[in-house]
Each structure stands twice: as structure tokens, then as C-alpha cells.
Write a structure and sequence with these properties.
The chain is of the alpha/beta class. It is about 35% helix and about 20% strand. The protein has ten helices and twelve strands. The strands form two sheets. The protein has a six-stranded mixed beta sheet. A six-stranded parallel beta sheet has the order 9-8-7-10-11-12, with helices on both faces. A hairpin with a 2-residue loop joins strand 5 and strand 6. Helix 1 packs across helix 9. The protein is globular. The protein binds 2'-monophosphoadenosine-5'-diphosphate. 2'-monophosphoadenosine-5'-diphosphate binds next to helix 5. The site of 2'-monophosphoadenosine-5'-diphosphate has 16 residues, from helix 5.
């Protein structure tokens, strides 16, 4: 069979997902297509979804601004996606749509792939910067995978506290960004999950890493630019770094696995994606 896959969102013209999934299809030895279904937010979302249903895709991804909006249209929502409150992957089985969220799992896979020692004893102390959608997915996944210390630093502390109580993160400390800056040396893994550092805000600072510990892993989910100023500072301070584009690859790997049952080794796609992003 030829898989029919796709992406909904807006704007998505520059999405890397078609490139990634066409590579995954090829590596898995499967035939299929991955098409873009751009849905203008000024038009009726339910009409768009009705048309999408008629396409009978085997599966599709959902990106901004529809990760929550898609939820009422699903027949089943996986418990992880339900807890995260957002769906980025739908599997169609005989017309029944099931929603998943692959962001948290993708993030954790990418981290462990780069640093296999992470999670050996689950004693790592994590600092997550941000309390938005990406942070929700990452924190939830870390928590259900048994990591006990996950502190949250956010510009708006209240959002951090809400997340802590919603997930019942009893051991979590919520910090302001300036307070987090004073204690960065206490963490084994520091994850930047906000959009700060993207090309448009590339010079904005979020938390200074001058006093980060050398053995720490510093991670940024922003991947344009590939090396954000946050990662640059981490590197200058001697910490180990973990790139955002790898999360993109591994969340796609997991989505592809949900659609096709194939877990494709994607290590060698890493350099090719770096070339795409730099080119
Ligand atoms: P996403 O779904 O991509 O995570 P989001 O839900 O809008 O995006 O979350 C944005 C996160 O980035 C929030 O933690 C936000 O902080 P607030 O809760 O204080 O809004 C954080 N954020 C965005 N811009 C920021 C900035 N300029 N400085 C600090 N934090 C910022």
C-alpha cells in the first residue's frame, strides 16, 4: 500500500515535515506521500476538517494554530495527549481518528540519543525554562518517565505554578527567570522551551548561563538558528549542548511509527537536516 500522510496548520509552506517524512518513507522502504494542507484561520476550520475527512489520509500531523482546535474532531485521544492538552499527530484507522502528542517523547528520545547516560538512574535535576505548550509536553513526559526533579522557570511565575499543580509535581520548585539565573549551576539538564532566540528575537536573552556547571547538558528547542545564543553561551561556559532540530526529527520518528509501525533509525538524517537548515 502507499501511505497517504500530511500536515495541517498555518502557515506551513516552509515546513520541514514533508522532507523528514519522505525520508522516513524511503528509509522504511515504503511508498507514500506527505502533503501540506494549509488551513487559513480566517476560513471555517470545521469545513476544512470535513474536506480532510474525505481525503481518507492514513495519518497526519497538526501544527500551530490547531493543536488544541483539532481535539473535538477526534474519536479517541491518547492519555498522554489528553494530559498535555494538545494533539500533533492523528492516526486514521478505518475512518476512526486517534490523536497523539509526540513532542515530549520525541524530545526525550533526542536527548537520550545524544546523551545515553541520561535516565540511567533518573537522578538528573532538570530545569525547564518556559511553561507553554512545548514545556507542558516535555515536563509531562519527563515526569511519567520517572524523573523526579523538574523545576520550572517562567517569565510569568503563575503559569509555572499552574503547571506544577495540574501535573501534581510535588517536588517541583517554580522560579522567576532572574532567580533561575542565580541557581543554574544546580541543574544537570537545562531545557529552553520558549520561542526566545528564534531568528526574529535572536538577540534576546532568557536566562544567563555564565555560572552553568561544566557537566550540565543545555538544550534549546529552538532550531532556527541551529546554534541559538543560549546554546552559544552554554558552550562558551563549558557545558554540553543539545540541539533543537533533533527534537523535530525524533517527534517525527515517533509519529511515523504510530502511522506505519516502523521505527526508522534516523541518526544519519541528522547531518542532512543540519544541511537543510543551514542551506
Ligand atoms: P509554545 O506552545 O511554543 O510553547 P506558548 O504556549 O505561547 O508557546 O508559550 C510560550 C512560552 O514562552 C511561555 O512560557 C512564555 O512565558 P509567559 O508564560 O510569561 O508568557 C514564554 N515566552 C515567550 N516570549 C517570552 C519572552 N520574550 N521572554 C520570556 N519568556 C517568553
Amino acid at each position: 500500500m502507499a501511505y497517504r500522510l500530511g500536515l495541517i496548520g498555518y502557515p506551513i509552506k516552509h515546513s520541514l515535515s514533508p522532507w523528514i517524512h519522505q525520508n522516513l518513507l524511503q528509509k522504511a522502504g515504503l511508498s507514500g506521500t506527505y502533503e501540506l494542507y494549509e488551513m487559513n484561520p480566517r476560513e471555517s476550520f470545521s469545513d476544512h476538517i470535513k474536506q480532510l475527512k474525505e481525503q481518507k489520509l492514513d495519518g497526519f500531523n497538526i501544527t500551530v494554530p490547531y493543536k488544541q482546535k483539532i481535539m473535538p474532531y477526534l474519536d479517541v485521544i491518547d492519555k498522554e495527549a489528553e494530559a498535555i492538552g494538545a494533539v500533533n499527530t492523528v492516526v486514521n484507522q478505518n475512518g476512526k481518528w486517534t490523536g497523539y502528542n509526540t513532542d515530549g517523547v520525541g524530545y526525550l528520545r533526542s536527548l537520550v540519543e545524544a546523551y545515553p547516560e541520561v535516565g540511567q538512574d533518573k537522578k538528573e535535576r532538570f530545569l525547564v525554562i518556559g511553561a507553554g505548550g512545548a514545556a507542558r509536553a516535555i515536563i509531562y513526559t519527563l515526569f511519567i518517565n520517572g524523573f523526579a526533579t523538574i523545576d520550572i522557570a517562567n517569565r510569568t511565575e503563575k503559569s509555572g505554578h499552574l503547571l506544577k499543580s495540574e501535573y501534581a509535581l510535588d517536588l517541583t520548585t517554580v522560579l522567576s527567570l532572574p532567580d533561575a539565573e542565580q541557581v543554574v549551576e544546580n541543574y544537570d539538564v537545562i531545557i529552553q522551551t520558549t520561542s526566545v532566540g528564534m531568528k526574529s528575537t535572536a538577540s534576546d536573552a532568557i536566562v544567563s548561563l555564565k555560572s552553568v556547571a561544566e557537566k550540565s547538558i543545555v538544550s534549546d528547542i529552538v532550531y532556527q538558528p541551529l546554534t541559538t545564543s543560549f546554546l552559544q553561551e552554554a558552550r562558551t561556559s563549558g557545558a554540553r549542548i543539545h540541539y533543537g532540530h533533533t527534537m523535530l526529527l525524533y517527534q517525527a520518528q515517533y509519529a511515523f511509527e504510530l502511522w506505519t509501525g516502523n521505527r526508522v533509525e534516523i541518526k544519519e538524517m541528522n547531518q542532512a537536516l543540519v544541511n537543510q537548515l543551514e542551506g
